[in-house]
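Researcher: Next sequence.
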Amino acid sequence: MPNPSAEQVQTELRALHDPARAKIVMAFFKTGKGGYGEGDVFLGLTVPQVRAVAKSYRGLEMNQIDALLASKFHEERLIALVILVNQCAKGNDSFRKRAVDLYLGRTNRINNWDLVDCSARAIVGRWVREKKQIAVLRKLAASNNLWERRIAIIATHDFSLAGDVNPTMEISRMLLDDNHDLIHKATGWMLREAGKVDATALLRFLAENHAKLPRTTLRYAIERFPPEQRKKMLKGNYPNG
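Model: Next structure:
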């Protein structure tokens, strides 16, 4: 029996095309002129639909995953990443290195926040943590490409889950001057996750950097704090500041 192909995946996804939902989703993901997702095209599928199809193609070869990443349709790029994430969870070092190389070579196709968020930690973050390659994240964080910067901060979540919040703090510090709201949100989110592991480190980071912290980043970072503490910090009152 021949190996499954990208074309088979595309046939299944396109059979689920929902034009009405696609129109709504394209507005949500800012695909219009000047939006962060400008030019992206959607089939109108739900994430559960994409994941359901992905289950039938767990063994899709990497060159076929690459072919899906080249698609103009958002959901076809999404399913490529879902499949690659699932494969990386079970793959050996050799496979995961190939996956990371493919991923970092196709960041122009991993070009919306949901695509980054579903894949950066599991593919890039785990590899960087296990192989002690933090320089990869530093390079991404310094990129002019919005999505590479988001990959950098989201990938640090793997470190936090393993008990090490330092990479999140370092990359967050690099991104303090970033002017994009999607980076402000992602940074605040990852700081909040780091705070679940080490609340003292989060408080110290916020106190040391509060003068430069974007308001959105701060709001996301302190979401789990008690209401009165949040109010004080939003007014610039920090425990050791």
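Model: The chain has 16 helices and no strands. The mean pLDDT is 95.
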